[in-house]
């Protein structure tokens, strides 16, 4: 069992560093020329450990024996000490593990695996200062840059007592912040951490982490918090409007509480001057042309709009309102019908957030549809108005 766990940890060494080195060295070929060379022994043994990890099988004891033999021949090679460190860590001897990882880094200060294991070792011990030092080194050494170090910092950020140190790390390594925020944003439970450690420069409407966090919060049903964060980061004006950017003049704020507009095999939806939305549905594939997440209270609502110019087959495009998390809409209406008479629909009580969607529906024979709409208005209807 211990060997199986060693195996899973050792794959990090292979995946992050050794695999790249082995691809350049071709140890199998080198072994035929000089099988007893310590570099060859280490490369073959590390490759064997990596293969065992991928196949989820125990590591061959001969791999460890070869690494031990190579350590005698090449005392400056870091790999044998990395393996010793992992073995010591799994046996519960953290002091011996730390000494082994430090010895590996002393032998090769640019060893990516040594920085990886030392960062993990120090953070496990609660040594924030040295843990973050190694994390910073890991980011500098890794071909993946900050992407490699981000999971360490993200895990560390889940403890609020570490937030000041992480903010200090970001000031010294500004390129790391976006990667860490993106890693944290996949879990809505990290929202407080994100808001606490991010600086204004990294709170932009186009920040990658914002889209991920909003999606995480929406998936978790935390609509109010998602909208509050969206509004604060996008600096949207506060107001009672039921539908954001109804006049199609505010592209800066991101989805989902602003329009998500298609540009794909389905068709094109694009804002135009004059507070207009231009639509082209190619007619080959059904799909969304425009959508926005709204949070309408239960009750009746009415959508109105005007079509500009001569529309082509507007009946192939339909509006619908769908409760988030549900597949079927609660109501729908063709675009031309909405333009002619308006569209009234009711939001049920168990529907805290809804998707207002404009989609294209293809027929038996592909037909292209095109329309330009303006003066879009969503209002309360009937007794709820």
Oligomer: single chain
Q: Compute the gyration radius: what is it?
A: 29 Å
CATH superfamily label of the largest domain: Tetratricopeptide repeat domain
Total count of domains: 2
Low-confidence stretches: 1-38
* Percent strand: 15-25%
Largest sheet: 5 strands, antiparallel
Give a verbal description of the structure:
With 385 residues, this protein is an alpha+beta fold. The chain has two domains: 2-224, Alpha Horseshoe (Serine Threonine Protein Phosphatase 5, Tetratricopeptide repeat); 260-384, Jelly Rolls (Sandwich). It has 15 helices and ten strands. It has helices at 2-25, 27-33, 38-54, 61-73, 79-90, 94-107, 112-125, 128-141, 146-156, 163-172, 177-184, 191-197, 208-219, 223-234, 335-341, and strands spanning 260-261, 267-272, 276-281, 287-294, 299-307, 317-323, 331-334, 343-347, 354-360, 369-380. The strands form two sheets. It has a five-stranded antiparallel sheet with strand order 1-4-9-6-7. Strand 2 and strand 3 form a beta hairpin. The longest helix is centred in the first third of the chain and has 24 residues, at 2-25. It is elongated. Mean pLDDT is 81; it is low at 1-38.
